[in-house]
Amino acid sequence: MSRISNIKAKIKTEIEENTSRIKHHIEVQRSKGDSSEAVDVTQDESNKAESRRVLNELSARNDALNKALFRIKNDTYLDCKTCLDEITEERLEATLVAELCIYCANKEFAINKIIQPKHNPSFRRV
Ligand SMILES: [Zn+2]
Questions:
Q1: What are the pLDDT digits (tens) for 50-73?
Q2: The pTM is what?
Q3: Does 30 map to a domain?
Q4: What is the C-alpha to C-alpha distance for residues 56 and 59, in angstroms, rounded to an integer?
Q5: Which range of residues forms the domain containing residue 20?
Q6: Quick check: is 68 in a domain?
Q7: What does the alpha-carbon distance between residue 1 and residue 32 come to, in Å, rounded to a whole number?
Q8: If you measure from the C-alpha of residue 121 to the centroid of ligand 1, how many angstroms do you get, rounded to a whole number?
Q9: If you measure from the C-alpha of residue 49 to the centroid of ligand 1, how many angstroms do you get, rounded to a whole number?
Q10: Residue 79 CA to chain centroid, in angstroms?
Q11: 68 CA to middle of ligand 1, Å?
Q12: Higher pLDDT, 107 or 117
C-alpha cells in the first residue's frame, strides 16, 4: 500500500470513529435528563455543556478530515496552501489534516504568538 492510501485509510477510520462519537453526543443533547433518577439539574446542564463542546470539536475535526479526503481525491493533498511547495508525507502522516508545509506552519505559528503574547509569557522578556 502506498503511503497516501495508508493515510487515506487512517482518515476514513478516524471519520468513522468521530461519527459514532458525534451520534452519542447528539443523544446526550437530546436527552431531557431522566427525572426518575433524580438527576441534579445543574450537573445535567454542565454535562450537556461539556458534551456540546466535545461535539463542536468532533464536528470541526471531521470537517477538516473530509477536506483532506477531498484534497487527496483532487491530487492537491501534498500542496502547501500558502507557498504551493510540497508538504512532506512524514508531516501528513503525523498531522493528517495539515494544509501547510512545515515552513509556512512555523511562520503562521510565530505570527499567532505575536498576536496573542499572553499565551507566551516569555515573549516579553526578549
Ligand atoms: Zn508552504
A1: 999 999 999 999 999 999 999 999
A2: 0.79
A3: yes
A4: 5
A5: 3-77
A6: yes
A7: 47
A8: 28
A9: 37
A10: 19
A11: 16
A12: 107
Q: How many domains does the chain have?
A: 1
How far does the centroid of ligand 1 lie from the alpha carbon of residue 103, in Å? 6
Q: 112 alpha carbon to ligand 1 midpoint, in Å? A: 16
Signed CA dihedral, 31, 59, 66, 68: sign only: negative
Give the model confidence (pLDDT) of 67-98 as tens digits. Answer: 999 999 999 999 999 999 999 999 999 999 99
Q: How far is the CA of 42 from the centre of ligand 1 (A)?
A: 47
The answer to whether position 116 is within a domain reads no
Name the helix (H) or strand (E) containing 78.
none
Residue 69 inside a domain? The answer is yes
CA of 18 to the centre of ligand 1 (A): 29
Task: Match 503525523 to its residue by C-alpha cell.
Answer: 94
The residue behind cell 471519520 is 15
Rounded Cα distance between 96 and 68, Å, is 7
Q: How many residues does the chain have?
A: 126
Centre of ligand 1 from the C-alpha of residue 69, in Å:
19
